[in-house]
Amino acid sequence: MKILKVLTLRGPNYWSIRRHKLIVMRLDLEELAERYSNDIPGFYEGLTSVLPSLVEHHCSPGVRGGFLSRVERGTLMGHIIEHVALELQNLAGMSVGFGRTRETGTPGIFQVVYEYQSEQVGRYAGRAAVRLCQSIADTGSYPQEELNQDLEDLKELKAQAALGPSTEAIVGEAEARGIPWLELNTRFMIQLGYGVNQKRIQATLSNQTGILGVELACDKEGTKQILRNAGVPVPRGTVIRYFDELEDAVEFVGGYPIAMKPLDGNHGRGITLDITRWETAEQAYDAASTASKTRSVIVERFYQGRDFRVLVVNGKVVAVAERVPGHVVGDGRSTIEELIEATNRDPRRGDGHDNVLTRIEIDKTALSMLAEQGYGLDSVLPEGKRCFLRATANLSTGGSAIDRTDEVHPENIWLFSRVAKIIGLDIAGIDVVSPDISRPLREVDGVIVEVNAAPGFRMHVAPSEGLPRNVAGAVMDMLFPSGQLSRIPILAVTGTNGKTTTTRLLAHIVKQTGSMVGYTTTDGTYIGDYLVEAGDNTGPQSAQLILCDPTVEIAVLEAARGGILRSGLGFDTCDVGVVLNVSADHLGLGDIDTVEQLAKVKSVVAESVMPKGYAVLNADDPLVSEMAERTKAQVAYFSMNPENETVLKHTAAGGLAAVYENGYLSILKGDWTLRIEQAVNVPLTMGGKAPFMIANALAACLAAFAQGIKIEHIREGLSSFVASASQTPGRMNLFNMGKYHALIDYAHNPASYEALAGFVRNWQGVRIGIVGGPGDRRDEDFVTLGKLAAEMFDQIVIKEDDDTRGRERGSAAELIREGVQQVLSRVPDPRVSHETILNETEAIETTLDRAPEGGLVVILPESVTRAISLIEARKPLSESPMGQNGTASTAYPTDLKPSQV
Question: pLDDT tens digits for 753-765?
């Protein structure tokens, strides 16, 4: 077997709207392509021996062992690999279950689709599944050591990709509230929400956390000073930088017992507590000095009591936990070393912050603690005797936590809230030492030891004992209080033809409201009036650029088939999803071989509209109108035919629609009609003479209206938007060259050729076409382009793209010529001529040189930018948008009416 390609999907996609995280593996089964599992000797026995847990895969609703039953009866290898890839992830601690396997149009080539939680883990699981199944097919088994290595690698990849318990808690709460989130791939930051409504976190720091508060919290002595001045009980202490200052410092704080810690430390590193003699103080100084970047050490009075961590969010105490240092409890039989091993076998304990608890390490610190208590690793503790292995209670060093939130005295709650505000932290972790947290600190000689910025949430969301606290909920309440939006409106546009024009027009209409618009198109990504990034930017990366920008108030996103198939949509849901049309284009690419499959790709946009939003669908295209059955959103139809049956039935039921009627672009709702503007007054429609542009304008107007944009703004946007090289490069750009006109349009498939013909055929002079198409189309597509060109133009110049996309130079042009000749042989027309000039630049230059007076040269280029440059180099009189009466400035037929189109 051979893996041909692996795609990672991250949003609504061709395979699933609800499950966004999917791996798509294109797999060549080679010699196993036609062999079912029951035809492979020993395969069933080998698979069940290696992965007995596959019995939990139902493969039929509610039937345990359903999948293995199918393997025993006989199923294809692609299906088996799907389930193995899922099970390997489950065994590595990631619960996944969704999968699909489909044969492509190429015999023996399958698409194996399965769910993942971590991208790297998902991709590895697919490769491992292929190795495992190939080994069992070849040898009847898969070595246990290789399986163990696979699982170890998967767990390591999982750990590397993990967000951390605090971040994971916040992200989980965001998902529960329907708030989108994104990893920003820098400094471990997470974005919550979109555009102007976004917030950012880094662990438990938020974009609202003040830098002064963080700096003060990092200065432990400064923190104590400002709290002491505010009347808050804090330990008496001082800072030293040299060892010879230690003796005086001990005397200053009142003698033993003392505690020492680094001035700028964290996670309990370098801290020694309850120091009662000089020898221990010397060792503690070395530990604290080494852990401090500035070699500065805090020496302070040690207060007897229990260790508490108080979490304050937005000025409110939301959780309190008692922290107990890492320890073991004797059973009268086991050595301390054996007790540590038994404690570490607790499934809740893991490495670092991976689990609820952390394993206890036997290191120099632990051995020193044992010695101070008079024990060694081989000592046997009496039953019930507690032996501590750490002086500090940090969870990261093996400590445990007990929830005490409901036991805190009201005066202490008031004090803790006040402390967080004094330091200036929106999220604060306050370390408290007190014999009894249920009594005021002032009564029991309790003190606040320090205040932490970016406190960990693990001890609160998953305490060792007591109630878990939804502290992430308090963070989300702070970042997104009631009524605060987290999203921005997303208007998505897809279809075979007209996407870019419609996207640009819709963005232009939205601009009339004064909102900052971010939009993506095939020629670039824009924010407001400025180009952010040039290129064919219709995939999820470009969408996320817009959604991550904190200035964007509304997003208008073009979504092309390629991006949907390669990565899924770049957003989870949208407010309005526009599907313009579906016609044969790119067929045979990405295993999309039929227009029905292509329609399913485009339908992803319609199906991703949220229930309160609108799916705007073309009622004149059956493949598009049928999408209404698959979307959960409200539906609005647009049509060039006011008598369209679907529209009439929809509006009769009170539905929303837009139609072209009596020369007007109109909105219909129930039994009323709102006329927006006459088509002749809309520059984009070329004076009402470009039907496909009227359809694009209808879609944009309907999408804007569905989003709640006022009709005045829609009308203003229509009247000021021109199909020019600046606003819509390559989309019906008409240039007045003096004695003739030139038109640049990026038509490149049969449907777009037919749409263009609706305009070109109305030209009274000679019509010349410079035609071609992308090399990755099917042979029959090129022949069709030739046929359409012969029916549209008087003179045809056949060229080829610079990038032939794997085709032999000249082969695409020959197929187009074949299509032209088929039409001319059937309907001979001596006025129609054709020739081939393969080089696009030469073809354009040659044709423009000999363009006749009153003629129209239509350029269908590979490079729109190059074609526009060649036109502009000839210094045309002007680009020719249609005037208010529907005519060009010169040399354009003036006697045509919209009814003649």
Answer: 887 887 888 888 8
